[in-house]
C-alpha cells in the first residue's frame, strides 16, 4: 500500500492553483470537473509520478472549521520536504510568500512555516 493522493482544504481553488503552481512551482497533474468543484491535483516537479496533492474546496462546514482552527492555532496543514531550506526560504520570500515562522532547527531538522493565502499554514522541512 502507498499514499497516492493527499489533500489540503482551500478556500478558493483558482487562487490556490495560482499559488501552488506560480509560487511553489508544483506541476498540475489533473484538472477535471468534480461536482461543483474541480479534481485539481499537483505533483512535485522532481517526482511527477509521485504523491499528488489535491487542492480540495473547504465547502463542508466541518472542513471550514477544521481549516480555520488549525490556522488560528498556528498548526501547519501539511509539510513539504526541501533539500536546502535557506535557499527555498529565500526563493519563496522573493516570490512574496509570507512566513509565519522563519527557518529554525528543531531536533535535528530545520523547519519554517508560511501562509499559503488559501487558509493554510504550510511547513517546509530540511532533514
TrEMBL record:
Keywords: Dioxygenase, Oxidoreductase. It comes from the Bacteria. The keyword Oxidoreductase applies. GO terms for molecular function: dioxygenase activity. Pfam families: Glyoxalase. It comes from Salibacterium qingdaonense. This is Catechol 2,3-dioxygenase. Residues 1-127 form the VOC domain.
Amino acid at each position: 500500500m502507498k499514499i497516492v493522493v493527499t489533500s489540503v482544504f482551500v478556500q478558493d481553488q483558482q487562487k490556490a492553483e495560482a499559488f501552488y503552481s506560480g509560487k511553489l512551482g508544483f506541476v498540475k497533474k489533473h484538472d477535471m470537473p468534480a461536482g461543483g468543484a474541480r479534481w485539481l491535483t499537483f505533483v512535485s516537479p522532481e517526482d511527477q509520478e509521485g504523491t499528488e496533492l489535491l487542492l480540495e474546496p473547504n465547502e463542508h462546514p466541518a472542513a471550514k472549521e477544521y481549516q480555520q482552527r488549525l490556522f488560528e492555532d498556528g498548526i501547519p496543514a501539511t509539510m513539504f520536504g526541501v533539500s536546502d531550506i535557506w535557499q527555498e526560504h529565500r526563493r519563496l520570500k522573493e516570490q512574496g510568500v509570507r512566513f509565519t515562522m522563519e527557518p529554525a532547527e528543531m531536533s535535528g531538522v530545520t523547519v519554517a512555516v508560511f501562509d499559503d493565502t488559501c487558509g493554510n499554514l504550510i511547513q517546509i522541512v530540511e532533514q
